[in-house]
Design brief:
Layout: E1 3-6, H1 12-23, E2 27-32, H2 35-47, E3 53-57, H3 63-76, E4 82-85, H4 102-128, E5 134-138, H5 145-148, H6 164-183, E6 190-194, H7 212-223, E7 234-236, E8 239-240
Parallel strand pairs: 1-2, 1-4, 2-3, 4-5, 5-6, 6-7
Antiparallel strand pairs: 7-8
Helix pairs in contact: 1-7, 3-4, 4-6
């Protein structure tokens, strides 16, 4: 059975992604910063009839936790087929670039950028043992530099006062996606960024217009790309997104 690790999967889009991947027959390791919440999430999925799932305690902002999670997973599997870097934080709001604190930038980047990169690097050895490894970095359209610099973009004015920090962290992850995909271009790896879109979760006080089922769909589609699929791209449910 093919295996997938999803970080930040005890709730919201991560939880729904875990459910959809389990429904497709993958064995899901549900990553969670809080061990108890992760175990409760797994039990909830068991109650829905999904038994091909297990918890994995991992705090992506903590190097020790990441390394411990890798060691734990190595006891259970010989390879990892898919890594979905879903865990992330929004940071303190609003995020005016002229006034938001350096501490806010550091906190958000520690999780969204440095944590995501460290998780990827730590689990690459297991991914390399897969015949068709996939890495999906969950991003956001607010991290698109092309859209943010286009006055005709529908969100051009609305995102500016609120997402300077969060958006910058997702721009950085998009840059990492491009660089890693290029490094692994002559292998079977597929490395892509995905935006779930404005999805209603506790992350945004349920203000999104998409359901979690809709938000998880493009993530799942990138996770199960065929060997002829694209790499080094930025996708949404509607198609390719401008960098």
């Amino acid at each position: 059975m093919r295996t997938v690790l999803i970080t930040g999967a005890n709730k919201g889009i991560g939880f729904e992604t875990a459910k959809q991947m389990a429904a497709l027959g993958y064995f899901v390791y549900l990553g969670s910063r809080n061990k108890e919440k992760g175990e409760k999430a797994v039990l909830a999925l068991h109650e829905l009839g999904f038994f091909n799932i297990a918890p994995l305690h991992i705090d992506i902002a903590d190097s020790t936790s990441i390394k411990a999670a890798k060691a734990e997973l190595e006891k259970k599997v010989e390879s990892l087929d898919i890594l979905i870097n879903n865990a992330g934080i929004l940071g303190t709001m609003p995020q005016e670039p002229s006034t938001t604190s350096i501490e806010n930038y550091k906190d958000v980047f520690q999780t969204n950028v440095f944590g995501t990169i460290e998780v990827t690097q730590q689990f690459l050895d297991l991914l390399r043992k897969s015949e068709s490894p996939r890495i999906v970095n969950v991003s956001s359209e607010v991290g698109s530099l092309m859209e943010n610099s286009d006055p005709n973009w529908i969100k051009y004015d609305s995102v500016k006062p609120f997402f300077a920090v969060y958006g910058a962290s997702k721009s950085a992850i998009n840059a990492y996606t491009i660089a890693l995909a290029y490094e692994l271009r002559n292998t079977n790896f597929k490395v892509n960024s995905v935006t779930p879109g404005h999805t209603a979760t506790d992350f945004n006080n349920y203000k999104g217009f998409k359901t979690v089922e809709e938000g998880a769909q493009p993530i799942v589609q990138c996770a199960i790309l065929p060997d002829k699929g694209a790499t080094g791209k930025f996708y949404s449910a509607e198609g390719e997104v401008k960098w």
